[in-house]
Design a protein that fits this description.
A hairpin with a 5-residue loop joins strand 1 and strand 2. This protein has 80 residues and is an alpha+beta fold. Strands 2-1-3 form a three-stranded antiparallel sheet. The chain has helices at 36-45, 65-78, and strands spanning 25-27, 33-35, 62-63.
């Protein structure tokens, strides 16, 4: 059977730290969305945004349900 290459995911669905498709996207206080594991590891050592290097007012992470839905739709479409 031939493996069909699925299209690359849109940038909005890719974690800017790990560069991989997000499975558990969370929004940091910089307004950007990251995969939970990589941003938690970043915040363990930094009080800044990995995207902008600006100080973060808080290290609170909020689940990004909109991006999570888009990832699910992307995977369903890609898997035919």
């Amino acid at each position: 059977a031939t493996q069909v290459a699925r299209p690359a995911p849109p940038d909005a669905l890719v974690c800017p730290i790990s560069m991989e498709l997000m499975r558990d996207p969370v929004m940091a206080m910089d307004g950007h969305t990251y995969e939970r594991g990589p941003i938690e590891r970043w915040l363990a050592d930094h009080q800044t945004s990995p995207k902008t290097n600006e100080p973060l007012p808080s290290t609170t992470l909020v689940p990004n349900h909109a991006v999570k839905s888009m990832v699910q739709e992307y995977l369903e479409a890609a898997n035919g």
